[in-house]
Amino acid sequence: MVSIKLKQGMTSIGLIGVITLAGCTGSNSSTAEKANPSQLVVALLPDEDAATIIQDNQGLVQHLEAALDKEIELVVTTDYSSMIEAASNGRLDLAYFGPLSYVLAKTKSDLEPFAARLKGGSTMYTSIIIGNVAAGVDEFTDIEGQTVALGDPASTSSRLFPELTLAEAGLKSGENYEAVFLGAHDAVALAVQNGNAQAGGLSRPIFESLVEEGTIDPEKVTIIAESEPIPQYPWTMRSDLDPALKENIRTAFLELNDESVLGPFKADGFAAMEDKDYNGIRKAGDILNLDLGEFVQ
């Protein structure tokens, strides 16, 4: 198991659509209703601006409503730990986790990963370490004594693998650099570009999309290093859903080819995945011996 722990008594979840979410798992619901609800709560990871995520994924809502003949409530939690907590309380029917947040959620919830983002024929991606050009940070030795921006403490490509990549280069958080957590990948990139941090770690696909849309100027930010391949973000479902519904959900994702739905995910489609595909995440967590209790309030 990953040697990463969440604090007990974490703050309650803050969600877009929280009223509907809070009411969707009433204690009077029958087992059959819980297994095959008329409305499915679908959570997306808050790795970028929440309002933008909700707006950009209305196509997903429409696709799932048509494919599953269910109402869909799309939610974005305030942070990764809130999403893990919501899953552990049975408040999410489907959830798009990051690899690390999935592994953490799996220790607290009965979840099944069933699909992951497919891009260029691969279900893998990478994390990168970036540096501020004006500060002259363009290799590992320049990071010594500097501030390194990271995303959420439970982020795979904006925390776990950046710290692992830095550790492999002989740089440890708290000893060789000061880590600051900014919550989201785009915040990391902007902090490095603006000089508020001299280096940072984030998902390469997200960084490339920020460059493509003009948010990040590649003349101001340089890529210092790239991580080993990481298994893509998994789609998960509650294990206690009705078997027929679960099969319909798998089909709705694995046969999806609508570019308007896939666009926000920067995906060519979704491919089948299972829990064992994330054992490398567990190994990375063990290597760093991370304790999220330091960061989760």
**Biggest sheet features:** 6 strands, mixed
The best one-word shape is globular
User: Residue ranges: pLDDT <50 for 5 or more in a row?
Assistant: 1-28, 293-297
User: Based on DSSP secondary structure assignment, what is the total number of beta strands?
Assistant: 13
Q: What is the CATH H-level superfamily of the largest domain?
A: Periplasmic binding protein-like II
Instruction: Name the structural class.
Output: alpha/beta
What separation lies between the terminal Cα atoms? 23 Å
- How many independent structural domains? 2
Biggest β-sheet: strands ordered side by side in the sheet = 2-1-3-12-4-13
Provide the CATH architecture of the largest domain: 3-Layer(aba) Sandwich
- Give the C-alpha Rg: 19 Å
Mean pLDDT: 88
CATH first level of the largest domain: Alpha Beta
Strand/helix succession: HHEHHEHEHEEEEHEHEHEEEHHEH
Strand percent estimate: 15-25%
The number of helices is: 12
- For this structure, the CATH topology of the largest domain is D-Maltodextrin-Binding Protein, domain 2
